[in-house]
Amino acid sequence: MPLRIVFCGTPTFGLAALKRLIAEADFSVEAVITQPDRPRGRGQKPASSPIKDAAVEAGLKTYQPEKIRSEEAREYLEGIAPDAVVIIAYGQIVSRDLLQIPRLGWINLHGSLLPRYRGAAPIQRAILNGETRTGLTTMQIDAGLDTGAILEQREIQIGGDETAPELMARMAEEGAPMMIETLRNLDRGAIAAKPQDNLLASYAPPLKKEEGRIDWKQPATIIYNQIRALQPWPGTYTRFRERMCHVWGKPADSAPETGAAEPGTIVSSRGEMFAACGGGTWLNISHVQPEGRKRMTAQEFANGARFARNERFLS
């Protein structure tokens, strides 16, 4: 008989795994649990999650409790009695009594090599910290924050120019077959769960808007990590003529033809735009989005701004 699975998730990170579970004959997805529809976009109209959209398209049952830690949710899961619950970026903490319901437990796909980067933003934090490698972990969740026993792990290299959305999409695709393999091995007793070493733990808390503010005293490589990590939210932003603007770019291969400059100093030269950073480094600006306007190329911004001598971006 196929393994009876409840899938629990919300954003796109879990889509590849859900679709793979649906496609494999030795699994039966009995229901999909996802967050309630939330207001989104400029109109703030309620919109369903990517996981719900995929479940509805596949003709699966969906359940959207406001709180998973409720009597109603417990009764719902007990009524299904799944062999396992696959949980990927669901967005709520699961209570201890729910963990006892599936015979194989709740199996999570986490975007780091645990116990490093426990928490909500492991992929973004790895890029932000300048890591060159990360990985995927399947684990049996417990009542803690990403503290459950490790089932399988796979190391993944981070591209030097890879953004958080790009890395997340790649990891989601690589994580789907990994989850399938974990479930099969777990069902036949071919996997030995390994406790995490809490002494090696580090944390990846949720992103905050203020983390997107650029400190031009930092070297260009640090700012570039910030630009790569904080897409699409909160983005990286600075002040120009008392207005906020978002900035994109990468470290310049060579400095523009100018002398030493204060951090944030803007130089427009030969169709390119640069901003001075810490340690004598420069950021080659590719795009700018002034507050209340559309994103534009750096050259379009420079043409409209007509910079004064030694004009600066301010943190």
How would you summarize the topology of this molecule?
Layout: E1 3-9, H1 15-23, E2 27-33, E3 38-40, E4 45-47, H2 50-57, E5 62-63, H3 71-80, E6 84-88, H4 96-99, E7 106-110, H5 122-128, E8 133-140, E9 149-157, H6 164-187, H7 220-229, E10 237-240, E11 243-251, E12 266-269, E13 272-276, E14 282-290, E15 296-297, H8 298-305
Please provide a written account of the structure.
The structure is a single chain. By secondary structure, the chain is an alpha/beta fold. It has two domains: 3-200, Rossmann fold; 209-305, Formyl transferase, C-terminal domain (Methionyl-tRNA Fmet Formyltransferase, Chain A, domain 2), CATH 3.10.25.10. It is built from eight helices and 15 strands. It has a seven-stranded mixed β-sheet with strand order 5-2-1-6-7-8-9. A hairpin with a 4-residue loop joins strand 3 (38-40) and strand 4. It is elongated and about 75 Å long. The termini are far apart. The relative contact order is 0.11.
What is the overall silhouette?
elongated
Distance separating the two termini: 60 Å
Find the count of extended strands (DSSP E, 2+ residues).
15
| Class inferred from helices and paired strands | alpha/beta
* CATH homology-level superfamily of the largest domain: Formyl transferase, N-terminal domain
